[in-house]
């Protein structure tokens, strides 16, 4: 595939779909690239209650489906492809993919972020075999079983409470002596009869042959190690990790300015330091990463891309 577009959007989460919608509606030829599943993180979200105007019982997949339908109605093209290299410095940008080289007058980067891993022995081997990073995706698999959750922020406690709808017991392990989550969330979690809490403790290793059967824990203050094992009658336990996210910045970390956590630095119009290159959504340095801010970023980036193209390319 070798074709030139006005705008190429890298990533098809809410930010990328919003950018694609606004760009195609402005009569710009638009391509949205996605290497994985359309919708990003929201595609595995059971309920979207804080998106303004979301209908009753709105889910992540249903919201994504409507976004995709809108994009395609205005002519945006979508392609499942892995981007391998970005050439952004020239006037015409080149996006190298496993489907060929694509050219664009403007590029909107919306690659998002991915769950941060613990980095302990057997984590990768047991991912999908008891270790998970998505409660809405996998909590049901652990119905009437025991689950361990790692983390101490809003997400960890909220997802832990969600998991109690399925698991018979949820043990939340936090590396500090108090949670970073909002007080209202902490109070609600503390009142949940299915939840127990372990403080000042970190995981050291997952135990299991093909499935998670236990986890080795270490107290940060005393150094003492203990092992949580699955109930003998169960033979398996669930482990959920909610310790933050990592920006998908591999393609651009040597090309653009990043903040201390690796997110792309932009101005309030989504412009990066390279003319014609914009960033939107979770990949961007910002104070709040939610669907509502992602779609706002996407809309702004597309409008600014249109202005850039009008100013730098003749009819």
Automatic annotation (TrEMBL):
InterPro entries: FAD/NAD-bd_sf, FAD/NAD-binding_dom, Ferredoxin-NADP_redctase_2, Thioredox_Rdtase. Its EC number is 1.8.1.9. Pfam families: Pyr_redox_2. The keyword Oxidoreductase applies. It catalyses: [thioredoxin]-dithiol + NADP(+) = [thioredoxin]-disulfide + NADPH + H(+). Keywords: FAD, Flavoprotein, Oxidoreductase, Redox-active center. It is an enzyme of class 1 (oxidoreductase). Residues 5-298 form the FAD/NAD(P)-binding domain. Its cofactor is FAD. GO terms for molecular function: thioredoxin-disulfide reductase (NADPH) activity. Belongs to the class-II pyridine nucleotide-disulfide oxidoreductase family. PANTHER family: THIOREDOXIN REDUCTASE 1-RELATED-RELATED (PTHR48105). Homodimer. This is Thioredoxin reductase.
């Amino acid at each position: 595939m070798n074709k030139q577009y006005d705008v190429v959007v890298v990533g098809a989460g809410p930010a990328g779909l919003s950018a694609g919608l606004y760009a195609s509606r402005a009569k710009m030829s638009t391509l949205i690239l996605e290497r994985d599943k359309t919708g990003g993180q929201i595609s595995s979200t059971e309920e979207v209650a804080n998106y303004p105007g979301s209908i009753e019982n709105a889910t992540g997949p249903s919201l994504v489906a409507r976004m995709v339908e809108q994009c395609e109605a205005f002519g945006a093209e979508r392609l499942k492809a892995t981007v391998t290299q970005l050439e952004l410095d020239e006037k015409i940008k080149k996006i190298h993919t496993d489907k060929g080289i694509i050219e664009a007058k403007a590029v909107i980067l919306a690659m998002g972020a991915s769950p941060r891993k613990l980095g302990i022995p057997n984590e990768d081997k047991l991912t999908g075999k008891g270790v998970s990073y998505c409660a809405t995706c996998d909590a049901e698999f652990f119905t009437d079983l025991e689950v361990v959750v790692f983390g101490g922020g809003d997400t960890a406690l909220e997802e832990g409470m969600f998991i109690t709808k399925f698991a018979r017991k949820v043990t939340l392990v936090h590396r500090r002596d108090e949670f970073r989550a909002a007080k209202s969330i902490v109070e609600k979690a503390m009142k949940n009869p299915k939840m127990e809490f372990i403080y000042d403790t970190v995981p050291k290793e997952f135990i299991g042959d093909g499935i998670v059967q236990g986890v080795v824990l270490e107290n940060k203050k005393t150094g003492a190690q203990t092992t949580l094992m699955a109930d003998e009658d169960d033979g398996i336990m669930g482990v959920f990790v909610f310790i933050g996210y990592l920006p998908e910045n591999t393609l651009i970390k040597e090309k653009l300015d990043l903040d201390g956590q690796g997110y792309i630095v932009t101005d309030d119009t989504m412009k990066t330091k390279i003319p014609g290159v914009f960033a939107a959504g979770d990949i961007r340095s910002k104070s709040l990463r939610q669907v509502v801010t992602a779609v706002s970023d996407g809309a702004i980036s597309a409008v600014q891309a249109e202005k850039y193209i009008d100013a730098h390319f003749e009819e």
